[in-house]
Amino acid sequence: MPGTTNLRTLYDVQQLLKRFNVFVYVGKRLWDIELMALELDNLYQARVLERDVYLQAKLVLKKEHREEEKYQQER
């Protein structure tokens, strides 16, 4: 899948998922991130995503999840 190896932000992951008609909005950012991770797992298991794209997207989500948890604790 050319052009998807440059995943750096949550928006990039959302755009990747959108290519597969996966739109995630639960209403709470932390839950959105968790659901996106599950959707990525499903796409990878279905062999639709290449390994490097999958791993990059998972790293982005892990970072965003950590930052959101920290933000929630500070509030």
TrEMBL record:
- On the tree of life, the source organism's domain of life is Bacteria
Q: Which Gene3D superfamilies match?
A: YqgQ-like
Protein name stated in the entry = Cytosolic protein
UniProt source species: Limosilactobacillus ingluviei DSM 15946
